Amino acid sequence: MKEFNLWIKTLFFDTSALVKVYRTSEKGHEKARELLTSNKYVCYTSTVAIGEVFNVLKNRLEGKELEGAIFVFESHLKTKLIHLIERGLNSEVIDKTIGDVRSIRDRYRIEPTDALHFIMMKHSLGQLADESRPKIVASDKNFIKAIKEEGYEIINPEDE
Questions:
Q1: Is the separation of the CB atoms in 110 and 138 below 8 Å?
Q2: CATH of the domain at 57
Q3: For residue 122, is it within any domain?
Q4: What is the pLDDT of residue 121?
Q5: Which pLDDT does position 9 carry in this prediction?
Q6: Cα–Cα distance measured from residue 157 to residue 76, given in angstroms and rounded to the nearest whole number
Q7: How many whole angstroms separate alpha carbon 159 and alpha carbon 54?
């Protein structure tokens, strides 16, 4: 009897990895693009990362290259990337989220936005287990260190 693997393989992209998908000159571009466009994974990012990616692309690209990158990014937002949003925001949830962000930021000395990405991922996907537990796609060294210490597996597009 054939055994089926029904685990959903999930990836969570931080801003550094998403930027690599759309900037062909970035080290790790091919691997990041391959991971995002593969049908093997369900891909997530935080809502915060969306604004950050638009900002980075706008500041580093111009003309037709910028237009093309934004067109592809917007297409992926509609078809490939599920963005995580904190649901049911009330003052209690906001206070807890802010406290969690501060704790992660201070513990690992990472940027507040990186801490927020992590908290949003953990709150939304943290209950997944085994092969469905998200792997984090990132290339920011400080963020990677923090995520590893929290017990998550990392895929760095810059690694060969």
A1: no
A2: 3.40.50.1010
A3: yes
A4: 84
A5: 86
A6: 18
A7: 25
The residue ranges of the chain whose pLDDT is under 70 are: 1-7, 85-90, 93, 129, 160
Domain housing 81: 10-155
In the β-sheet with 135-137, what is the strand arrangement from edge to edge? 81-84, 42-46, 10-13, 135-137, 154-155
Domain membership of residue 40 (yes or no) is: yes
pTM above 0.85, yes or no: no
Q: Is residue 160 part of a domain?
A: no
Structure tokens given for 122: 């953990």
Could you list the beta-strand ranges (E) of the chain: 10-13, 42-46, 81-84, 135-137, 154-155
What is the Cα–Cα distance from 52 to 41, expressed in whole angstroms? 23
Domain annotation covers residue 145: yes
What total number of domains does the chain contain? 1
